[in-house]
Amino acid sequence: ETGVTQTPRHLVMGMTNKKSLKCEQHLGHNAMYWYKQSAKKPLELMFVYSLEERVENNSVPSRFSPECPNSSHLFLHLHTLQPEDSALYLCASSPSGSGGPLDTQYFGPGTRLTVL
Amino acid sequence: DAKTTQPPSMDCAEGRAANLPCNHSTISGNEYVYWYRQIHSQGPQYIIHGLKNNETNEMASLIITEDRKSSTLILPHATLRDTAVYYCIVRPLGSSNTGKLIFGQGTTLQVKP
Q1: Which among A7, A107, B26, B104 counts the fewest CB atoms within 10 Å?
Q2: A4 to chain B: nearest residue by CA?
Q3: Using CA atoms, how far apart are residues B84 and B40, in angstroms rounded to an integer?
């Protein structure tokens, strides 16, 4: 148990559906991250939020829309996804997002997404 | 691209020390070496990190060579629950990098009874 929770743990959706992934951290951290892990591929950073402000967007398609209403919650809104978007989506948090040596990231268990 | 090179897989007998090597020959002076592991279908778990001195915590030890071009993660008494993919990450520091972690393919460690 890392103090980062994600819901749902599994999600199956059609290409025309709209769904949202939720992440919550109980660590008092100020930075939150979304990563994508496709089958047999390394983790890819998608978005970074620091103090509820998006500070990084790694050329992610607009069908993925993040939202950070406060420093404890992070959402990933999904619409008109493609089958190749099927992956494990991981949320992480860190104390500040500063990138300093003490700014260790802690990951949630992930949401396994399948797009039909 | 990841700045590290790791063997794709390793085996270790249960109860023995697991020594996982990592090559980072292009590491810069202000870059730390981080280790994470990922047990099947779970989120990555932080293990340890270091700059140039050897580090030890309750999970593992990190040995960094004097020239900092390579390091070894040591699990002193491996158990079956240590079976996982282990990632060695060279992390650029500073606010301009937002602390991003760049994951490579890692080493799959199989601990055998």
Answers
A1: B26
A2: B43
A3: 7
Among B43, B95, B102, the residue with its CB nearest the CB of A109 is B43
A44-53, A63-72, B61-70: segment of lowest average pLDDT:
A44-53
Judged by CB atoms closer than 8 Å, whether chains meet at A45 and B102 is answered as yes
Rounded CA-CA distance A26/A23 in Å is 10
Distances (CA, A) of A44 to A88, B10, B30, B44: 11, 24, 23, 13
A2–B93 C-beta distance less than 8 A: no
Instruction: Answer whether A42 sits within 8 Å of B91, measured CB to CB.
Output: no
**Rounded Cα–Cα distance for residues B113 and A112 (Å):** 30
Cβ-based contacts of B43 with chain A (< 8 Å) = 2, 4, 90-92, 107-110
**% of chain B residues with pLDDT over 70:** 92
Residue A96 has a pLDDT of 83
